[in-house]
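Extended Data, panel c. Modelled sequence:
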Amino acid sequence: MEKRLQNSQTQVAGLERHLREWKTKANELEIKLRAAQKGPVKLDSAAKAAVVGTVELNALKDKLAWSTKELDGLKATFEAQGQLLAEARKR
């Protein structure tokens, strides 16, 4: 039981790390998109960069949404396992 609890903790920590990385990447892409839309570059290259960046940003947002759901599920499992472990120790 304690081993499963540790595994859940490890999974939660890993997902939280991925969420932070993806949020950072999403922020960087948003900054690049804004710069591409405002900058004095050729319209075609700015438009292409904006489309590519938007696709990447949307993919990252999808990953963030999925990972957040996964993280919430793991946290719920983690809490339930912790409660079961606490009850088992009382007995």
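The radius of gyration is 20 Å. This feature is highlighted in the accompanying rendering.
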